[in-house]
Design goal:
Layout: H1 13-25, H2 28-31, H3 37-45, E1 52-55, E2 61-67, E3 102-105, H4 108-114, E4 122-130, E5 136-140, H5 143-150, E6 155-156, E7 159-160, H6 162-174, H7 177-194, H8 209-220, E8 225-229, E9 237-241, H9 243-249, E10 250-265, E11 268-276, E12 279-281, E13 284-286
Parallel strand pairs: 5-8
Antiparallel strand pairs: 1-5, 2-4, 3-9, 4-10, 6-7, 8-9, 10-11, 12-13
Helix pairs in contact: 1-7, 3-8, 5-7
Length: about 290
């Protein structure tokens, strides 16, 4: 995986395992000087094989939800999509401070639980589709770990894509044993960190810094979409895209307002549709 750091030392398998131990058991994220963290993450992924796949199916849906607060509804599509960089004041799963990222989900239940929607909340959704004759290069967090554990590729974009297994097997056959074990180890480690609940109140969400830095390495390597398992909705998937990629390759096709009638827990949420936009007109939502 390209880290844009040509002089970075390559870690051995044992050194990578030791570095992971420091993160998991010795609280390295909080203890190490912050200016060192980017180089630490870059060293961990240096020379690991990049695993990605392209999607071209225009029926794939990306759901983005925002709670309606202080206004009856949002009348501009940009009020629901990614915020401008200056309004991004905290780290999140895939972004640094003042870095705008569009976070979407594989379905409505996942999107609702990712924003902690509760009973009586009103949530406005925008549904987006991949444009005709477009493709997105997807990097999937935890893909190797999932296949290693379960023997099959995960359901992503609501399909079981056999190509994923062939991509993985092809890479495995072309790298040495140590590199492959390093790839398996790091993928399991970073998938664990992506799936951890985080104290977002700690120093502007700094506990997201590890996954945010890794996400930026993925984006720099040419990845358009980072897919990662939802913390709030087990079995659901989240998708992170740079706003400029989203603007170029996916298009909003519908806007809805849902009201949460029950949140029973364990991903069981009941909601009713309160409004549906008639059309989208150059970013304006017409009801």
């Amino acid at each position: 995986m390209d880290t844009q750091e040509e002089t970075i030392e390559v870690l051995s398998l044992a050194e990578l395992a030791e570095q992971i131990l420091f993160f998991n058991e010795k609280d390295l994220l909080r203890k190490c000087p912050r200016e060192y963290l980017p180089s630490i993450v870059s060293r961990m992924v240096k020379d690991l094989p990049g695993i990605s796949f392209d999607i071209t199916d225009t029926s794939i849906e990306f759901f983005r939800g925002r709670k309606i607060e202080n206004v009856p509804k949002y009348n501009c599509i940009h009020e629901i999509l990614a915020p401008p960089p200056k309004k991004v004041t905290t780290y999140q799963r895939c972004n640094l401070i003042e870095q705008s990222i569009l976070y979407t989900a594989s379905n409505i239940p996942t999107a609702l639980l990712e924003i902690n929607a509760n009973t009586t909340d009103r949530v406005q959704f925008v549904v987006q589709h991949l444009n005709e004759n477009s493709s997105l290069k997807v990097g999937c967090v935890g893909l190797l770990d999932y296949v290693r554990r379960f023997g099959v590729a995960p359901h992503i974009f609501n399909t079981l894509d056999d190509r994923l297994e062939s991509v993985i097997n092809g890479i495995k056959q072309n790298v040495g044993k140590d590199i492959w074990q390093k790839a398996l180890l790091f993928d399991a480690f970073i998938a664990d960190w992506f799936s951890r609940p985080v104290d977002s109140s700690y120093e502007s969400g700094y506990e997201y810094a590890l996954t945010a830095l890794y996400s930026n390495i993925m984006f720099r390597s040419g990845i358009d979409v980072i897919a990662y398992p939802s913390v709030g909705h087990k079995g659901g998937w989240n998708f992170a895209l740079k706003p400029e990629i989203a603007s170029e390759k996916i298009t909003p096709v519908g806007v809805f307002i849902y009201e949460i009638t029950e949140n029973l827990g364990y991903g069981l949420v009941n909601a009713s549709v309160k409004a549906e936009a008639k059309r989208l007109n150059n970013g304006a939502i017409e009801w």
